[in-house]
From TrEMBL:
Residues 6-210 form the NAD-dependent epimerase/dehydratase domain. GO terms for molecular function: aldehyde dehydrogenase (NAD+) activity. Pfam families: Epimerase (PF01370). This is Nucleoside-diphosphate-sugar epimerase. GO terms for cellular component: cytoplasm. It comes from Glycomyces sambucus.
Length: 306
């Protein structure tokens, strides 16, 4: 039986972390991206049927960590996912998809996997459709698949994330760190190596198939608590502020990325807390990286990038 684990989007933040975790656990890895380099890498465009088939050929498990540009999720993500599913099905492989929490829409209380897909915004609806495509393909017997869901992430390599430029890059440069949303509401954060560990655990356990799982996290800090941890690691005089809805609207007039945040502002103005009880019960107690260690490692990486 093959032990080939294929990572799609292997040069992205989550994909590269998954490839590293797989290698650390002794699995044979094929790292797939459009501009792949190295002996264990494959250059392929997995948005095409031919590219998806070539990427997945011979795989035991495929980790789907690739995605369209953020602003194009609604237009491109469902079709892209269907193409990837065709490649996984042709290979007879299992699929583990890196997922997020957008499909739930506004919530009150801790998020569990049995919440309805109530999002009404375009990106939330797109993520709901993607999740449905994957789980329907499993139910229909086309593929065996699971989804691993994470919150806003940070970590070495985490550039295209809400916590990268506004928090870690800013602190590394000695500038004011800006938390998007309310400083005093709880917000679960996910550390990239912990996301990778959770996804690989799903890949190693066929009993995970057919479900969506919230990947292991630590207790949610408030924005203020998280920024305090970053500044403590930096050793400087704390300088932080909240980027509120009004400022987001104003900056969005000039910055299309910031403008996109308004669509999901409900993730910023109230507690946004992940419940990972189901994962822990199914696969044992994980050991997520302590926030202080994760923050220190991330800050060190951002300082090197300068």
């Amino acid at each position: 039986m093959t032990d080939l684990h294929v990572v799609l989007g292997a040069t992205g933040a989550i994909g590269s972390a998954v490839a590293a975790e797989l290698a650390a656990r002794g699995h044979r890895v094929r790292a797939v991206s459009r501009r792949a380099e190295g002996p264990d890498a494959l250059a392929a465009d997995v948005t095409t049927p031919e590219g998806a088939a070539a990427a997945c050929e011979g795989a035991a498990v495929v980790y789907q960590c690739a995605q369209p540009p953020y602003a194009k999720w609604a237009a491109e993500f469902p079709g892209f996912t269907d193409t990837v599913l065709s490649g996984v099905e042709r290979a007879g492989a299992r699929l583990v998809m890196a997922d997020n929490l957008y499909m739930y829409g506004p919530v009150r209380g801790a998020m569990t996997e049995d919440l309805p897909y109530a999002a009404e915004n375009p990106k939330g609806r797109a993520r709901a459709e993607v999740a449905k495509l994957v789980l329907d393909a499993h139910r229909e017997g086309r593929v065996r698949a699971s989804l691993g869901r994470a919150s806003d992430y940070f970590g070495p390599g985490g550039l295209n994330t809400i916590l990268g430029p506004t928090v870690f890059a800013a602190v590394a440069a000695g500038r004011t760190a800006r938390w998007v949303g309310g400083l005093d509401v709880l917000h679960t954060v996910s550390y990239l190596p912990d996301i990778a560990a959770g996804l690989v655990t799903l890949g190693e356990h066929p009993e995970a198939d057919g479900k969506a799982w919230h990947l292991p996290v630590l207790a949610a800090p408030t924005g203020r608590e998280f920024l305090d941890m970053v500044w403590e690691a930096a050793g400087g005089e704390p300088k932080h502020a909240a980027l509120g809805r009004g400022t987001q609207r104003l900056l969005g007039l000039f910055n299309p990325v910031v403008k996109e945040l308004g669509e999901t502002w409900y993730q910023r103005d109230r507690d946004w807390v992940v419940d990972d009880t189901a994962f822990r019960a199914a696969f044992g107690e994980p050991r997520p990286t302590p926030h202080e260690d994760a923050v220190a490692a991330t800050l060190a990486w951002f300082r090197k990038q300068r």
